[in-house]
């Protein structure tokens, strides 16, 4: 076997130009996959972190039917019991209560329909990052009873500034209720959907405006290890089976975001398939040409006592060595190309026409995008490349093993 390995290595570089061109093509394809994966994962994870932090949680508990109907009257029953079970199952998790509703925010000059979130200012600042987007004023504090945080664009539409009063019009048991707030802070995410139609208010004020008492729309668990999401969701669902609640992982709580990520990943796998086809044909061409050029030589080997199995193994070993060398080179190229994107990031502002942020499924993504390299995907891409190498070498190997010594020697 060692002789076959040595012989295969020598044969691989007998035509150095062809081998190096093929190896470079395979390596570049692998490197491109690694870089594309790093940038895709970086963008996806950024969106997931924002969505989980501000719109849901890794695990969400809601009143049964809220995910489908979205009615403000559907609240979490027996909140103390839910909180107790959540703390038992995930003691390290940060648990957040929120009230989601809609209303009409008015000022002396204008009125805008907005999506409102009633929050506990103390715990919200520990899980969300809206406080980091404040451009004027400050985020809510526990002592704020009538404070409201609105987007910069919404403030411009309403023609209000810090300290100005706004009135929220909402329904309470079918009757219109007016609630007075004072603008405490202005945020800017760069996404029009949020900056122009989104606001945070104190939890108690939201409950009063909607006559919910101590009821909340959602109790979310923010886990230290996201990989525990499914296990925690299952355990919490079993523990709360007697209550009329729905326990959802973030993928079900934020279906639009999850579907967008799956669709975007699908695009990457289409690219993967195209590169795989190019790689496979490149390998097939190289190995097959090598066999055809050495038909007489292989015939001599067979006539001198080399078995068809040994000839086939020699050709397959040549392809394997080609694949392994390409994987090492491609992984190095991919790592070198991805490293500055991971450390320094890439600014997409000019590419996106000067936009400050872009969004998908209601979740903003900043223009400074940082790559995130997954070792699992790198190994997967490497194994896929090696598998394609062996697959493309099957026909040349079969052809070499079926050569007849006399006919092969006479071949020109």
Key phrases:
six-stranded mixed β-barrel; alpha+beta; 2 domains; 412 residues; single chain; 54% helix; two-stranded antiparallel sheet; 14 strands; 16 helices
Quick structural overview:
By secondary structure, the chain is of the alpha+beta class. It has helices at residues 2-12, 16-54, 66-69, 79-89, 121-127, 152-158, 192-195, 203-210, 229-239, 250-253, 255-293, 295-303, 308-343, 375-392, 394-401, 405-410, and strands at 59-63, 94-106, 111-119, 134-137, 147-151, 165-172, 175-187, 198-202, 218-222, 245-249, 346-347, 357-360, 363-366, 368-369.
Question: How would you describe this protein?
Answer:
The chain has 412 residues and is an alpha+beta fold. 54% of the residues lie in helices and 20% in strands. The longest helix has 39 residues, at 16-54. The mean pLDDT is 85.
- Return the structural class: alpha+beta
Radius of gyration, CA atoms, in whole angstroms: 31 Å
* Helix and strand sequence: HHEHHEEHEEHEEHEHEHEHHHHEEEEHHH
Number of helices: 16
Topology:
Blueprint: H1 2-12, H2 16-54, E1 59-63, H3 66-69, H4 79-89, E2 94-106, E3 111-119, H5 121-127, E4 134-137, E5 147-151, H6 152-158, E6 165-172, E7 175-187, H7 192-195, E8 198-202, H8 203-210, E9 218-222, H9 229-239, E10 245-249, H10 250-253, H11 255-293, H12 295-303, H13 308-343, E11 346-347, E12 357-360, E13 363-366, E14 368-369, H14 375-392, H15 394-401, H16 405-410
Parallel strand pairs: 3-8, 5-7
Antiparallel strand pairs: 1-9, 1-10, 2-3, 2-6, 2-9, 4-7, 5-8, 6-7, 11-14, 12-13
Helix pairs in contact: 1-13, 2-11, 2-13, 2-14, 11-14, 11-15, 13-14, 13-15
């Amino acid at each position: 076997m060692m002789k076959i390995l040595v012989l295969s290595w020598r044969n691989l570089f007998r035509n150095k130009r062809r081998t190096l061109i093929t190896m470079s093509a395979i390596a570049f394809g692998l490197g491109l996959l690694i870089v594309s994966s790093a940038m895709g994962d970086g963008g996806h994870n950024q969106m997931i972190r924002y969505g989980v932090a501000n719109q849901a949680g890794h695990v969400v508990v809601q009143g049964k039917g809220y995910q489908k109907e979205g009615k403000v009257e559907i609240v979490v029953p027996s909140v103390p019991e839910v909180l107790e079970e959540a703390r038992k199952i995930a003691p390290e998790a940060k648990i957040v209560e929120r009230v989601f509703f809609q209303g009409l925010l008015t000022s002396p000059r204008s009125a805008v329909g907005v999506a409102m979130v009633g929050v506990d200012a103390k715990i919200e600042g520990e899980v969300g990052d809206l406080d980091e987007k404040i451009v004027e004023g400050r985020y809510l504090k526990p002592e704020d009873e009538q404070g409201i945080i609105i987007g910069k664009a919404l403030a411009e539409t309403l023609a209000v500034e810090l300290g100005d009063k706004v009135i929220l019009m909402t329904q309470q048991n079918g009757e219109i209720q007016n609630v007075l707030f004072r603008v405490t802070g202005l945020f800017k995410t760069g996404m029009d959907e949020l900056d122009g139609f989104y606001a945070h208010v104190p939890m108690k004020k939201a409950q009063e405006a909607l006559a919910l008492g101590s009821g909340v729309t959602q109790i979310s668990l923010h886990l230290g290890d996201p990989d525990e999401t499914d296990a925690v969701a299952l355990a919490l669902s079993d523990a709360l089976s007697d209550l009329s609640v729905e326990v959802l992982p973030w993928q079900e709580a934020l279906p639009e975001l999850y579907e967008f990520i799956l669709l975007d990943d699908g695009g990457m796998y289409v690219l993967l398939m195209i590169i795989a086809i190019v790689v496979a044909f490149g390998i097939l061409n190289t190995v097959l040409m090598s066999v055809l050029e050495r038909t007489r030589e292989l015939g001599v080997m067979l006539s001198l006592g080399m078995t068809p199995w040994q000839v086939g193994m020699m050709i397959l070993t040549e392809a394997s060595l080609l694949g392994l060398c390409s994987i090492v080179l491609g992984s190095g190229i991919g790592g070198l190309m991805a490293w500055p994107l991971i450390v320094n990031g890439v600014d997409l502002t000019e590419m996106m026409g000067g936009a400050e942020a872009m969004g998908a499924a209601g979740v903003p993504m900043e223009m400074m995008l940082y790559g995130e390299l997954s070792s699992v995907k790198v190994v997967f891409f490497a194994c896929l490349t090696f598998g394609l190498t062996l697959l493309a070498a099957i026909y040349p190997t079969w052809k070499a093993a079926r050569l007849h010594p006399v006919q092969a020697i006479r071949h020109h």
